[in-house]
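Narrative of accomplishments. A recurring question from our advisory board has been how the design workflow behaves on a single, concrete structure rather than in aggregate. To address it, we present the structure tokens for one chain from the evaluation set, followed by the sequence designed for it. No filtering or post-editing was applied between the two.
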């Protein structure tokens, strides 16, 4: 895959993540790397597939940030782990949904699976070596978004696809 396609993916990740958190009133800034470990981490993984691209998105987030993003009707002083876990899964789903819309705009239609959520310290995602491995650190590394994908030979991400139109609306909350 050419460098400009990888740069498009990086741009999709950054824009999608910033927009996602901003939609819940939380400002996050991308950083070059993780500054420290994530305290009270929650993680969600969600797979995706298309004709030419398939892989997984992994979101690891500090409990405090996930709780700050909760919808107003779920925000309480100390939300239960169950609520934060469900919400972490939903954030990963919305993140991949935003990516899906950006890929759709360039003619790549992906399908999403259901997220799976984990809680605990020192977790790490183990997967086979993928040709595309991108990491995005936000809020001084307290949010980590990983994008791992395989692609078919000669697959490249081009500019806007003719007639692609816009994807479905972003920001709808669906609990699993």
């Amino acid at each position: 895959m050419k460098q400009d396609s990888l740069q498009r993916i990086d741009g999709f990740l950054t824009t999608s993540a910033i927009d996602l958190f901003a939609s819940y009133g939380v400002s996050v800034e991308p950083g070059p790397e993780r500054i420290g470990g994530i305290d009270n981490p929650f993680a969600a993984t969600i797979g995706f597939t298309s004709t030419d691209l398939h892989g997984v998105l992994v979101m690891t987030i500090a409990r405090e940030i996930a709780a700050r993003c909760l919808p107003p009707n779920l925000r309480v002083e100390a939300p239960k782990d169950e609520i934060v876990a469900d919400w972490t899964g939903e954030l990963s789903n919305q993140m991949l949904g935003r990516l899906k819309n950006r890929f759709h705009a360039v003619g790549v239609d992906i399908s999403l699976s259901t997220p799976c959520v984990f809680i605990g310290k020192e977790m790490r995602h183990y997967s086979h070596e993928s040709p595309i491995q991108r990491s995005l650190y936000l809020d001084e590394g307290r949010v980590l978004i990983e994008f791992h994908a395989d692609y078919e030979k000669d697959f490249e991400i081009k500019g806007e696809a003719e007639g692609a139109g816009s994807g479905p609306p972003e920001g709808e909350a669906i609990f699993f």
